[in-house]
Amino acid sequence: MKTQTTIQRSESLGLAALLALAGGLLDAYTYLCRGGVFANAQTGNMVLLAIRAAEGDWRSAGHYLIPVAAFAAGILVTEALKERTPATRLLHWRQAVLAVEMVVLAAASCISLGAGDGAVNVLVSFVCAMQVEGFRKVRGHAFASTMCTGNLRSGTEAFWHGVRKQNPAARETARCYFAVIGCFIAGAALGGLLLPRMGRWTALAAVLLQLGAFLWMCL
User: Fold this and answer.
1) Rounded Cα distance, 188 and 4, in Å
2) CA 205 to CA 201: how far, in whole Å?
């Protein structure tokens, strides 16, 4: 396993924690405030897309296709930023990704509740795609900051090897994954606490967390 001195800032646990907090908050935000949907991952949308298409309900199928397309667009934009952002000491391409995310979320928070919820969910899908594509490792291990299934699988596997085979590196890996999962859960809880007070503006809390991640990479 890599030592702390060889870990890039973009792969540090501190940065992953900030992004996971933002990811959990956004999932709570879209579910509680924007129509009861989870916009961070697209598995559910793909399942519903297939069901509606099988039923011949093409209009509804198209409705579910939109966030999937937005997620794909987020991946493409991230890859474009990776290729085209000039390498300087002041700005890393991942910081450019965070800057776009913050602008999009700030704009989404300005959209009124109700009729605009669909548009907001599409924007959140776009943002989450950028985040999960731009930040793919924590301490050298693959992870996701906007969903937990893969982290839970990897963390549990590492826990097994750590305990069963008395592998200290595997135990440390498990602790890293479970810390990220804990931050995601804490972010969702934070979203639930802020929503009654901030309403649609709760998305700005995620912007602040992403700003923290942006500044973390400057240190």
Assistant:
1) 28
2) 8
Q: What is the pLDDT of residue 6?
A: 60
Instruction: Please name which of 144, 151, 111, 149 lies closest in space to residue 130, comparing C-alpha atoms.
Output: 144
Q: How far apart are CA 114 and CA 98, in angstroms?
A: 27
Q: From CA 187, how far away is CA 106, in angstroms rounded?
A: 18
Residue appearing with tokens 């999937």:
68
Q: Where are the alpha helices (DSSP H) in the chain?
A: 13-33, 43-54, 58-84, 93-109, 117-134, 149-164, 168-198, 203-216
The rounded distance, in Å, linking the Cα atoms of 154 and 133 is 18
What the block records as the tokens of 172 is 């440390």
- Residue 2's pLDDT band (cuts 50, 70, 90): very low
Token digits of residue 152: 């839970």
- pTM for the structure as a whole: 0.92
Q: What percentage of the chain reaches a pLDDT higher than 90?
A: 84
